[in-house]
Design goal:
This protein is α/β, with parallel strands linked by helices. It has one domain: UDP-N-acetylmuramoyl-L-alanine:D-glutamate ligase, CATH 3.40.1190.20.
């Protein structure tokens, strides 16, 4: 029974997971609006409150910490105030930041959202996405080399912000493979060949369609055909494709399992993909079967999308959700 499996792993030693990714800050400005500007046909927002949270790969890290993992963080930030804020927020969770390099030629990615009530009125992005330099790539690889040896699993959280060049990605995957560590990937962009050698790639439906050059992935057969393109390109053994309101599908070259959405209501899907990749990484690091880990990730996503913003969940909350639904387990089918 799946609930029993979850209960048993709670007593295991915390897994060590290395997250390599595009680190970001999410800034939220909350206000009210009752009139339009006389200068242009846009709302005037009276600011009432502001907050910042970790975004991108840093949100994957927050999810892993919330689940109970020991996390190492590797990535790239700018030499700026947003970078300082990001480091400070990571240190709140007692995370080591020695594997983060600073690039003086870029800004730390900062996404500012303006909200009136629960409505997002505007988003402002401050970022530089040119590829990482060879010098910084070498510096980061040197840092990662020792960390890979001490970790149980490596997560690549790619937001297409310049870190995951073909060279850098190949080198990270090769390091992990050399030390017998599995790599799971949250991908971006059109070229998945750079992820060759990974254990699992987790695109959403739109990302899969673009990377496989497929159209109208609206059936399981079309989904499997698109997945086969990626299997041929990357030789990965597994894909997990998230399908928004339709849940997710776990595929291998010769089998699949459909996991319907578990949410009873959808309030905000922000960060749900980060929760899914974090849960899969956490549970398979503890030795759980991949299909069961995906089922748990599906429940975790259902929990977080009932809340506003990029939020996290815990093993205890997932266990409570499983118990409430009476979930037993799942099987892969041809």
């Amino acid at each position: 029974m799946l609930t029993q499996k979850v209960s048993e792993i709670q007593f295991k030693q915390k897994p060590k997971i290395l997250v390599v990714g595009d680190l970001m800050i999410d800034r939220y400005i909350y206000g009210s609006s009752s009139r339009l500007s006389p200068e242009a046909p846009v709302p005037i927002v009276n600011i009432q409150n502001e907050s910042i949270t970790l975004g991108g790969a840093a949100n994957v890290i927050q999810n892993l910490v919330s689940l109970g993992a020991n996390v190492s963080v590797a990535g790239m930030i700018g030499n700026d105030n947003a970078g300082v804020q990001l480091i400070d927020r990571l240190k709140i969770d007692f995370l080591e930041t020695d594997l983060i390099v600073k690039d003086s030629t870029r800004v730390t990615t900062l996404k500012t959202r303006v909200l009136v009530g629960n409505h997002q009125l505007l988003r402002l992005d401050n970022e530089v996405v040119h590829p990482i330099s060879t010098a910084l790539e070498n510096e980061l690889i040197d840092k990662i080399n020792d960390a890979v040896q001490e970790t149980d699993l490596v997560v690549l959280s790619d937001y297409n912000k310049g870190l995951f060049t073909e060279s850098f990605t190949n080198r990270v995957v090769a390091l992990a493979t050399q030390h017998g560590k599995r790599v799971i990937v949250d991908p971006k962009g059109l070229d998945y060949k750079k992820y060759k050698g990974a254990f699992l790639i987790k695109p959403n439906r739109k990302e899969l369609a673009e990377a496989s050059k497929s159209e109208n992935i609206n059936s399981i057969e079309k989904l499997k055909n698109a997945a086969n393109v990626i299997f041929d390109q990357t030789e990965v053994p597994y894909l997990v494709v998230t399908l928004s309101e339709q849940g997710m599908v776990l595929l291998s070259p010769d089998s699949h399992v459909e996991l319907p959405v578990k949410a009873t209501e959808v309030f905000d899907v922000t960060g749900a993909g980060d929760t899914v990749i974090a849960c899969i990484a956490y549970f398979i690091s503890l030795g759980m079967d991949l299909a069961d880990a995906c089922e748990l990730a599906n429940h975790a996503a259902a929990i977080v999308i009932r809340r506003l913003g990029a939020v996290t969940t815990t093993v205890e909350e997932i266990l409570a959700d499983l118990t409430q639904r009476g979930v037993q387990g799942i099987q892969l089918v041809p």
